[in-house]
């Protein structure tokens, strides 16, 4: 490097694949597998309850609780991906009974037409 020159820094937007360039950095940095998820070892670690259920393909209802930014949505998405399930997200504040019924109908259709389960995340 010559005197006065600065090292070239990667540009996260310029160097990202075209479809990733528009996604927020936080979204691009999310873990993509259960092994990349940090925390919750007491339920997600090897041989632990949630990990065992997912490895057996046994999805069940869960309540994920915690302050914003702790990974609840990310974990729900990872569960859906691990289970090869559709992922639907609704806002508990904005969604009504009609919206939930429509989500259940879409889940039934996905199960009937494509044989895929659905993870419904009510945030």
Distance between the termini: 51 Å
The average pLDDT is: 85
- Helix % is 25-40%
- Walk across the major sheet and give the strand order: 1-2
Q: Would you kindly provide a written description of the structure presented here, covering whatever features stand out?
A:
The chain has 123 residues and is mainly alpha-helical. The chain has 2 domains: 9-83, P-loop containing nucleotide triphosphate hydrolases (Rossmann fold, 3-Layer(aba) Sandwich), CATH 3.40.50; 85-123, no CATH class. The chain has 5 helices and 2 strands. The chain has helices spanning 25-28, 41-44, 49-55, 72-82, 97-114; strands at residues 86-90, 118-122. It has a two-stranded parallel ribbon. Helix 5 links the parallel strand 1 and strand 2 (118-122). It is globular, with a radius of gyration of 19 Å.
Task: Describe how the helices and strands are arranged.
Blueprint: H1 25-28, H2 41-44, H3 49-55, H4 72-82, E1 86-90, H5 97-114, E2 118-122
Parallel strand pairs: 1-2
Comma- or semicolon-separated keywords:
2 strands; single chain; two-stranded parallel sheet; 5 helices; 123 residues; mainly alpha; Rossmann fold
């Amino acid at each position: 490097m010559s005197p006065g020159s600065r090292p070239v820094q990667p540009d996260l937007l310029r160097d990202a694949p075209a479809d990733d360039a528009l996604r927020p950095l936080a979204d691009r940095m999310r873990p993509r597998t259960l092994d990349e998820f940090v925390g919750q070892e007491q339920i997600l670690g090897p041989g632990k309850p949630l990990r065992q259920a997912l490895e057996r393909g046994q999805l069940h209802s869960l309540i994920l609780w915690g302050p914003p930014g702790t990974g609840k949505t990310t974990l729900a998405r990872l569960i859906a991906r691990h289970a090869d399930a559709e992922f639907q997200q609704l806002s508990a504040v904005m969604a009504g009974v009609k919206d939930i019924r429509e989500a259940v109908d879409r889940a039934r259709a996905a199960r009937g037409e494509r044989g895929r389960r659905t993870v419904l995340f009510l945030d």
